[in-house]
Each structure stands twice: as C-alpha cells, then as structure tokens.
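Contributing: when you submit paired examples, paste them exactly as shown. First protein:
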Amino acid sequence: MIAVRPPGDKSISHRALLIAGVADGVSTLRHLGDGADVWSTIGVVRTLGATVDVVEGPTGIDATVTPSVAPDAVGLLDCGNSGTTARLALGLLAGLGVGARLDGDGSLRGRPMRRVVYPLQAMGARIDHEGEADRLPVTVHPRATGALRTLRHRPRVASAQVKSAILLAGVLDGVAVEVREPARSRDHTERMLAACGAPVERREEGEGAVAAFEPGSWSGALRPLDLEIPGDPSSAAFMIGAALVNGRPIRIEAVSDNPTRNGVLEVLEEMGAAVSRENETISGGEPVCTWIVEPPDRLRSFDLGGTRIAGLIDELPLLAVLAARSVGRSSIRDAAELRVKESDRIAWLARNLTRIGVTVTERPDGLDIEGTSARLAGRVESGGDHRIEMAFGVLAAAPASDIEQEGRGCAAVSYPRFWEDLRAVTTWTE
C-alpha cells in the first residue's frame, strides 16, 4: 500500500502565521504548506513587521516567527491569489487598528470581499474600496483612538473566512463578538485562538454553529505557538481519488482529521470505499491521524446538498470527476459558492467534463453528472484554478482516459508536489 504525506494544511498554515505574527513571544511552526498561497501570507506577516525565518524542506516549510508591533500604517499587502490571506488580514488590521492597502492578482481581484468588509465596518473599522465595490484593492485606514464595537453576526452562508476575520478583530481589540452560522464551517481559528489562551468558545447549534469571544478578565496576550502543521485533507483528497480510480489502497499520513474538514471521507464511504484510521492524536487543538482508504469494485454515485456542502467546498471538484467514473447519476446542489472561488468552478467542471464525453447538467448551484465506463478523451483547461487542474489530473490518470491538459502549473498554489505524488500513486506496485 502506497503512503503519502500531503503538504501542511493550507488553512491552518495561514492562521498559524497570522496569529504568530501578533502573539506574545516567538512561535515555532513546522511543516507549513509550501504552496504559493502560504508564501503570500508569509509576505503579509513580514510587511506587518514580524520577522519570519524560514527553512524549506522536501515536505514543507519550517518557520520561526518573531512578532513586532506594527506602525499605525504599513504599505501594500500583496495577497497574491489567496482569498484566505486577504480576508483574514482584513480582520487582523481591523483589530490592530493598523492601516494598509490590500491587493492581489487578477483572479483575487475578481473575488467578493463585501462579506468580510461589511461586518468589520459594522464594528467601526474604516475600510474603503478603491475601485469596484466588493472587490480588491481596498484600503484599511488606521484607527488612532477608540475601540471597535461589539458585533453579533448572522451570515446567510457559512464562511470560515468571514468568521475568522471577525474573531481576529474582536480578539486583537478585546471586544466581544459572536458569529452564528447556518452550517458548520472550518473551525481552525477558534481552536488555535483558544490554544493560545484566548477565551474563544465554539459550539454546535442545530445544523449550524456558534463561535464567540468574550474578553472578560483576559489579559489580551496570545501565547506563542509551537506547532506541527498536520497534512491538508483537501490536498489529500486528490491523492485518494487517484488511488480509487486506479483500484488501489492508500495511506494518508499525519493528516488533519478535523470534523469540519473530513466530510470527504463520509462521501467516499457512501461511494463504496472502506475508510479506517490509525495513530490518532491531538496537535495544537487539532485532531491528527493516518487515513487508510481501500477501493470498492466500482464507485457508486452520490447526492450532495444542504449543510454538508460547507464542509466539502474544496473537495467538490475532485468528487465531480470521481462521479464521472461512478455507477449512476451523481448530484451536487446548494454549492453556488463554487462560482466565486478562484474560478467559476461549476462552469469549468461542466465545460471540461462535457468536452471529454461525460453527460453533465449545469445548474446555478451545482451539477448532475452521469457516470460512465467509456473512454474519456479530449482537451481540458484549468481556468487558472489549482483545484480544477488537480481534479482533471486525477481523471486523466484513470484507466480508459486520453485527456490532454492545457496550461498545467497552477497546482503549485496549494500543492507544489502534486504531479510528483500523483505519478507515484498511479504507478505504484506491490
């Protein structure tokens, strides 16, 4: 059985770097993700005044972060292609009262920012759009005096990035905040802030969840981090998918088993895969273990929608291409958020699957996909989106595929070793 250790979790890496940059002491972070998005966050933390010393290794980045008090205003924060960097940095700036201009590449400039800007403005942060409303670039103005206002926020769509920005603003300025979400989103920020000593509470409430910060008598000092970043389950999903379409078992070692991130395993079990766990432990408040996944004779179709979608948003492109090699008709609903990611992922999935001979129905919030065992052939494009590129890389590596990919290379945004690991998984023999 082949074993793969995925890159350090991208979501946890972003948060660890940003929190380390404002902690009360020197933090040590090991096995950070080494994709371009994480490097964007390293650049932002450095611009804010922290010293980030890095050592690059074959499986990730080790970093020592020495915080420093940022001035009232800094220059440009270049967030590259990373929406997480931009949205969490907005919350960080609001909480610190530091001014800056945030911008990113052409793709990031096309992604919505109002969902974060609006609640931060409601707290009293001064944030202006420089051009098109709801888009980067934006300017955050310094806050010379006064505190932010308490906020109780009820977003219509669950978003870990919005929740994290509000929590960071509240914690760093010492004002109470609460976010009530209609579904459970990633809770890495809550776990990490609590591990650093902040009185942050998280709890489930029906199908949704509540995250809250109440400063009380807390001193306001965040303990520094000493953290081994677990493997990224979203990246791991692509290696699992490659193993399944080739009928091979796989071990994913030292991966985050956070319950808001492992929903893909439940779907794979519904599709017939056998899943087990080994070496379960806790690191920095995060559950970590080894996943063992064994393939069925044939993958079965699935039906996804409702509150499950929030915990699967990054894995849906992979599940869509697996649906093309499953028995029956698979459906993805309530996933309109896919249209405002690095690309319109619904459109690109539908376009590419149709090009190679899969029957697909595109809807505003999802897709219906007819599984087939026929040969799939044609030319596909990624639209500059790393997860679209990786998804069709998996499908191209499946039997009875003659798929040509145009413009390979953007997988490095999140998974620089993707093609190397994919080759190892698909060519491995006992």
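Second protein:
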Amino acid sequence: MRIWLIEPFFTGSHATWAKGLQAHSSADIDILSLNGRHWKWRMFVGAISLGEQARAKDEIPDLILATDMLALAG
C-alpha cells in the first residue's frame, strides 16, 4: 500500500511521529512536508505548496493521511 503522509509543520514531535510511522509501517509511506515554522501560514495556505509537491509525483497513492495542521476544507 502506498501512503502519502501530508505534514505542513515538519519539525519536533510532528517530524518524529511521521518518521516513526514511516520507519515502522509495512506500507510504503512518502512524506510530503513543509518546514516547521510560521504555523498559522502553514495551516491556512500550506495546502498550495503541498499540492504542488503532490502534482510533481508520478503516482497515485492508495491513501492520503493529512495531519490536523492542514486545513483541507479551505
């Protein structure tokens, strides 16, 4: 199973959790992320940059896992 883990605030505990999940999962997890700074900006407009990362990939994941630091409905 191919999973895209989308984390717009990739630092500290957020990065540790994502890397741990990637290391210990039997799934193939790709992390799409942004640097961990300016958290309000990351939450509201980070989806634009992360969407560009997703478009650059030449694949479609089986599952997309987005953390709560990303406003998906906006």
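If you have annotations for the second protein, write them as plain sentences, like these:
The beta strands are 2-10, 28-35, 63-66.
Residues 39-56 form the longest helix (18 residues).
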